[in-house]
Amino acid sequence: LQEMIKGRRELVIGLTRDPQFGTCVMFGLGGIFTEILRDISFRRAPLEVRDAQEMMQEIKGHKILEAVRGMEAADKKRLTDMLIAIGRIGLDIPEVSEIDLNPVIISGSKPVVVDALIVLK
Known about the structure:
26% of the residues lie in helices and 36% in strands. It is an alpha+beta fold. Helix 2 crosses helix 3 (76-92).
C-alpha cells in the first residue's frame, strides 16, 4: 500500500518513439484531461532546460502550474528535471519503447508520480 497523495492538479509526462521524429518527450494536462482536452506538448530528445520550460509554457492549461486558489505554484525546476530525465532514459535505454507517467499530481508544490507505465520492446 502507498500513502494517498493529496492534490487537485494532474499532469502527464511521457516518452514515445515516433517513426518520423524519433524519441520524443511529452508533457501536458493529465488524468482524464489527457484524452478529453489533448492539451499536450512534444519535443525531440534530448531536452535542454529551455525546451522543458517551453513545453510547460505552451500548453493551454499552463496557468495550472501557477499559484492558484490557495494552492502553491508547481515546482517547475523539478518538472524540468523530470522532463529532461525522461528524454535521457529514452536515448540511453533503447529497449524502452514508451513511458507514461499519468497522473503526475502536484502535491503542495511537488510533482509526484502516482501511476507509471513503461513498455519495453
